[in-house]
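Hey, can you fold this?
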Amino acid sequence: MQPSDTPIYGIHPVEELLSVRRQDVEHVYFDKEKRSAALFELLRICRRERMSYNLVPEAKLDALAGTRRHQGVVAFCSVRPYDGAEVIEGIVAAKAAPLFVVAASIEDPGNLGAIIRSCVCLGADALLLERKNTVPLNAAVAKSSAGMFEHIRIVKPRNLEGLIEGLAGSSGFSVVGAAVEGGVAPSDYDFSGPTVLVTGGEHRGIPPYLQKQCTATVTIPMNPLGQSLNASVAAGVLLYEIARQRKHCLN
């Protein structure tokens, strides 16, 4: 099966998908009225693996699949495979001060694509995404990234919280959250060491479980007339400051 925006439907095709390319599955939809042992097992896998799924009316499933022959389940995949969490270990072992970006709760594909583009242009080593609450890595994201999403590691770990905890603990990373107010100016923070930069979404900001992991908070100074920056613009400003301090990509 190739990564695609095209729906994959039917019990056996979705079973195969969850078996061989589970990390690339963006969302699974189930008919909320249909019952079978096979569907229950697929639902159990989604719950166990913290995958994004919904129980929906049959009519919605028909529309998503473009057919009524979906057997009660439809799945969508990313347009490119996600990198495995092991690439993070490799980067940590190879570099003195890696930079990982967490784009949390991003709902707009244009914003995610723009964040990916800034990550590539300004020297981030990998982008980490949540399993849920984030726009799928689809064709719209690819277009917005101007092809840059092929040039950076993009990881959607099963346990993002645990991965960050490990980086902050044994690997000595600073976990820096971007906040609308209350943080220090980015230029006053030392980004020279290993860093996880956590940015929030358009509406939710940084989720509480990630806020708890932040060891520092930065806030971009703004004109009082402005309420806040677009999520991708804020990420780009912060990445520029980190690159400026590290002298990455600015020659």
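Oh, and this one too while you're at it.
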Amino acid sequence: MLRAGFLIFVLAFLLVPLSGFVCNGVFWQQMALSLQDWTAIATSLLGGALAMVVIVLAGTPLAFYLARARGRLALLAEAIVLMPMLMPTLALGILLAVVYGPAAPLGRAFGVLGITLTNTPTAFLLATVYAALPTYVVAARGAITQVPEDYEELARTLGDAPLKARLRVTLPLAKRGLSAALSLAWARALGEFGVILIVAYYPSGMPVQLWTDVQDLGLQAVFPLVGVFLLATLPVPLWLGLRARAG
């Protein structure tokens, strides 16, 4: 009984802010999403989806390395992954702008190729990947670590190459944790504000558009976009969680 009461208390604590949707006196029928809101929704969903592809392709091998490797090089790699997570997101945005901005050597080099990495869709993708990749890698590494390395070794003795052994043995066994890692990365990608505010203010994603709407229209005017944000973000983690449990 005590345990159930404690769990209810924690869930209620998390649910209380969401009650603002129904008890703040907002007249929903009088409010609608603006064209800028719809553009922000499309930007976040498309940019987030593309970022997930990049994050899975780049982050999964790195997670395997961190989970299996030993030594100082692996420790250094882990520190590099953790540093973006430990820094304020606004500071990360400033660092990205300094490195990839039009006046920076790297920014000028991309500019020669016709790629602008500030205030463009490409910059939005860069900022989203940079913000969410470490979250995925850390969570995925934990999931892979839970799978004994002996299983891979056994698959290799049966003739599988190292990559094939990981694809056939480790990934299926770690799929629950990998689904959780992808869910966290998706939520971080769509919810990222600080990095994108500095690097990719245009085109605005949903968090930056919420900030703009609050300044221009007031607090109550942003509730429709907040609702859409929740509806857009929540299904992916729920779907991944159901698939992982079903398997």
